[in-house]
Amino acid sequence: MRIHIATDHAGLDFSRDLQEHLRGAGHEVIDHGPREYDPLDDYPSFCINAAIGVVTDQQSGIEALGVVFGGSGNGEQMAANKVRGARAALVWNRSTAELAREHNDANVISIGARQHTLEEAIEFIDVFIATPFSGEERHSRRIGQLAEYEHTGNIAGHEIGA
Question: Do residue 49 and residue 115 come from a single domain?
Fold first, then answer.
């Protein structure tokens, strides 16, 4: 599987170690940056590029997922979710990693590098990659509604707006 990865300065060491782990597990890793430590770096472009890579690959029929990191993972998740077709989930334990895929068909996860050990992050990522989307109708329906809103600003049959 192709894994797109991005971080900010807070997750740079995590990113390097995780890329090594993922490559060792047989995955193709695409690093969207940064390449060097800069405490003033701006993570949005890195995470947006990783999400674009995932969405583009998936639309081309390439099996791909993404992982983004930051101090808390919050901003990185928000950045990835700005990409049409990206479904980025903040993951903080094994269960949230599993449910992100199983219920939400997340294609990107975000992890707080200052919140977890490397071993925990590896576990979350491995669970995320290994867990398939359930395909249950209720989950597919809700994902469809998110995509509909993303494209049209509406959800058929549901009131949107104040």
Answer: yes
